[in-house]
Amino acid sequence: MRAVLVEEFGAAPRLADVADPAPAPHGVVVAVQATGVCRSDWHAWQGHDDDVTLPHVPGHELAGTVVAVGADVRGRRVGDRVTTPFVTACGTCPECAAGQQQVCRRQTQPGFTGWGSFAELVALDHADVNLVALPEGFPSAAAAALGCRVATAFRAVTDVARVRAGESVAVHGAGGVGLSAIAIAAAAGARVVAVDPSPGARDLALAFGAEHAVAADGAVDAVRELTGGGAHVSIDAVGLPATCEASVRSLRRRGRHVQIGLLPAATGAPLVPMDLVIAGELQVLGSHGMAAHDYPRLLALVGSGRFPLAGLVTRELPLEAGPRALAEVGAATTAGITVLRP
């Protein structure tokens, strides 16, 4: 099969012919119809993730068709159109038994712990636990966005932050996950302020339901003024020390900060103003993806028309454009979600 192969961290990947994967007894192989290009993939390419070993194929947001099934799989068959969370859970550990597969202690992750979906084929573990059947006619490019950015934003807004109608929400970063969080919060009846250095991203944020969109410089003062003293909820959808700190400082008293964006050690340690956390009784929360069994709620929101999923995908590129697309993530030169079509 063809795949985007990383052979040296930070060096340009190349399109290569590599061996086809085989399914584990509990897994499947999926023919990839679409795969999103995410900032997490960029971190993997840069060597910021200790789970990644070389040579490596990135990619963890995907949609496609099952083409091979392991001997122990009972609920999936060849020909099924599916997507999956980026956390492929074991299904048996205490966290999985409690329904919290997104923090499975024995999780694997395509594109991190193993080869991913920047390829014509990808192997996925524990298929009966992790695969999500796609509704008839659901576009592959839109479905590819669900696995990481949209699903992560959905759970962060609805279950972790528990955003309520009438609350003010600040979203720092209007990339794929930030735009998703903006649209989901707006659908819940919140008043959203988006923060992003890119004018194009700010325009998209307004189109996705933000009432205001402000530049990153001076964002804390702007958010506090626009929300009458600070946001009820503030989300860091980027994962930089500066955006994490700005998110916490954007809160009103007893507000909730939710960290979605990864903060690998290579980017530096965030300065969390704990004096404000204590004095304002702030909540500092993390959110890590979403379990497969929660997808029906997300698909229902998409089906209602209140979440403009198709509008998230702003570019569709062939697989050979994967190396260029990865580099552009680091430079933050594009708005919305880029999808590769193997």
TrEMBL record:
Domain Enoyl reductase (ER) span(s) in chain numbering: 10-340
Entry keywords, A to Z: Metal-binding, Oxidoreductase, Zinc
Cofactor(s) listed in the protein's UniProt record: Zn(2+)
Pfam family name, one: ADH_zinc_N
Annotated InterPro entries: ADH-like_C, ADH-like_N, ADH_Zn_CS, ER, GroES-like_sf, NAD(P)-bd_dom_sf, Zn_alcohol_dh
UniProt keyword Flavoprotein present: no
Protein name: Alcohol dehydrogenase zinc-binding domain protein
Top-level taxonomy: Bacteria, Bacillati, Actinomycetota, Actinomycetes, Kineosporiales
